[in-house]
Amino acid sequence: MTGKLSRLLGPGIMATAMLAVLLALGTWQVERLHWKLGLLAQIARAEAAPAVPLQPDAEPFTKVQVTGTLRDDLAASYGADVRDTPAGTVLGTQLIVPLERKDADTILVDRGWVPDSRPRAIALPSGEVTVEGYVRPGDTPGLFSATDSPATRQFYTLDPTAICSAL
Prior knowledge:
The chain has helices at residues 2-48, 160-166, and strands at 52-53, 63-70, 76-85, 88-100, 107-115, 128-134, 154-155. It is an alpha/beta fold. The chain folds into 2 domains: 1-48; 52-166, no CATH class. The longest helix is centred in the first third of the chain and has 47 residues, at 2-48.
């Protein structure tokens, strides 16, 4: 009888360990689901609300309105994204442009996705403009993040401090 128990001890321990790992992963997924649902609810509330003037302590995903001058001469690229267009599959990035404000800090404005190769320059409004958008928190690079290139103003992590330093 002891020989039979000893043969089952190893598989029993492995099954218990695997069950513990699976329960931990399931719990993590449920916690992540609740976090994501909360984030989506926060974004939905922001989309339904009117834009407010940007405050220094604005919560992430708050809809804000800001007036200033866009500095297209200091544009940077963020990320890399492939999109299907009428011309075919195209590689592009998010265009990040500083907005200089009177008597306030300069902020970074994500102007949206642009193709890497384009037949003409992207037209930016001249003079003072008012933009409406959402406050987005910065990121920190992960273990497998691509390396930013401040010299070419190409960033793969949305780190406002690093982008502003390069600009």
